[in-house]
Amino acid sequence: MSEKKIRLAHGSGGTLMHELIEDLIVGRLGNPALDALDDAAEIADLGGHAIEGGLLAFTTDSFVVQPLFFPGGDIGTLAVAGTVNDLAMKGATPLYLTLGLVLEEGMAMPDLERVLDSIAMTARGAGVAIAAGDTKVVERGAVGGMIVNTAGIGFIPDGVNISGARAADGDVVIISGTIGDHETSILVAREELMLDTPIQSDCACLGGLVRDALDACDDVHVLRDPTRGGLGTTLNEIAARAGVGITIREDDIPMRQDVRAVCDILGFDPLYMANEGKAIIVAPAESADAILAALRANPLGRDAAVIGEVGGEPGVRLRTSVGGLRPLLMLEGVQLPRIC
Amino acid sequence: MTGGIDFAAFRSEPAANALVGRINRLTERAGGTSERPIALMEVCGTHTVAISRFGLRAMLPPGLRLLSGPGCPVCVTPLIEIDRSIAAATMPDVIVATFGDMMRVPGSHRSLESVRADGADVRIVYSPMDALEVARKNPAKLVVFLGVGFETTSPIIAATIVAAAREGISNFTVLPFFKTVPAALDMLAAVPGRPLDGFICPGHVSVIIGSDAYLPVARDRNIPCVVTGFEPLDILAGVVMLLEQVVAIREATGSAGVAVQYSRAVTPEGNTTAQGLMDDVFAVYDAEWRGIGVVPATGQTLSKKYEMFDATKRLEIDVPTPVGESGCICGEIMLGRNLPPDCPHFGAACTPRSPVGPCMVSTEGSCAAFYKYEQGWRSGDPDGTEEK
Questions:
Q1: pLDDT, tens digit, for every residue of B199-213?
Q2: Of B10, B85, B162, B223, which is most buried, counting CB atoms within 10 Å of its CB?
């Protein structure tokens, strides 16, 4: 398809989106802060003024979700947690957020109040303050209810050095809990699916959980939250950034039975389903037990598990539950429901 | 649903190893070698994906070859029917409703995805009943549901058409491209130029049509048929059951028959209610299979009684006969003469991003499954160790 137009697949977190970002955007706007392409940028100086005792972490994210309210959260919890997590994945303490609201003509006022209450509660829980904001209203039908943008600032203390590029041979790969919950819950929440399951979005702020992991191990190499594109895509990003190989074991990946079943029915691969409250942690093997214990002591990390190791030829591989070994590629385009 | 399914019971490595051990012994006993392997064909896209996704091919001995038949309903849909779907989508006051798989399939010039980006009203639905709901909510538009699928899908669409008739929803229509499995197996069994020693028969389709539907193929063509489930251990067990029949045939101690590995879901007679529904709503016709050609009595279109729901009777959908060769060997792959990596376009000109043929774009297409899960695997390189 040679037509040069934006397609939905450009937003799915897969290879198309990566090309859009790297060729079109970074090509024009690149600078040292942006070029690292981690979840948040590291900023070391403020126009010539040094920052004492660490670095600033700075990030932004826009949120579109249908339906606006889903089991386990809503667009408000998502908007706070998403940006807080992007900061946390740099080992930063999240501090301030901005809030941009694009509202659609006709949106019910109680819905907006509900979203704002979620934002307030989630921000309070994460210890961040909304420091600035903006509202716009657009014509009916333009944005499907509302779009929320948040930007965030956090502080990375000296001694914390976390980046996708630091994954090294001999490291272990840890996931903080069950995968695929968020995107599966959204799918089920869309009324047309008529599946009756109690799957809840895992949407949560991970600042505290990350702090627990960093307290247990002062040499965590990589932290990433596998959002769009899921675990499979994020592991590929880590492997590519660090130029390493990663092998994970299907049997060790925590997954709810109902998430697996819904994905099986629809022909989706849970490894590519978005998460909104999970962290991938890559750290030296000898610290695995300490990190696991710290994660499991936190309710958000109850199901944490070591799922694989860093090593071997570059690329990501999956050892299947029956003993097969196969490549695990980055998601291409969007996952589409199958026929039968 | 929670806690109801114990997937671990169907995905255990020790159990898989035990089955692979039996497969190794049976393959050797049947005389399968890398030069002349025993060839088993699966004819269901869900099997295709499971075999690739669980890495089963690499676990099997070189004397055994798994071929991917025409099991993906999107892949067997000829180009002209894709063009018709796209043409319908660009007509005024038409909403095309479709399963997701069809969105990216390239037509002669466009895809549904690209005409949607230009403003055509194309909606992805999870069930034909959702398409009926779209028709209910848009009485001034004509809803065209793309009727792609085998006997797993077609009864649900038949039920939707009956519901539309009952409720008098006259703006719901179906573009019927349905295919049926048993007659296609008979055609595949007769294809010259490649060995075929057994069919891994589809589980879901067989729930509807029953395992007895394969008796003519097994008897007349002397090809073993085993109805197989979709978990990795199901598939390995199905392969064992097929190899047992192959050994019996080669040692002249038995002949081909139909066996059911997927006995937790499949009966000999199948779902007679669904069969009755199909008989009422559909009529058999000589369907064109992409890359294969017209195969007598292998398609379902709408019966006279329900023809008012046939989109081709309600819309003037004229598209030119597609011209030009893409060089795609989908047909050869679906006939079992080649595997996806044998195609010159595979992974080069043809990727999921810019597919040349439907086998690369559909979730259940054999090329997409190979690309996604078995890159590095090549014919004659069952370990996937050879450099690309």
A1: 999 999 999 999 999
A2: B85
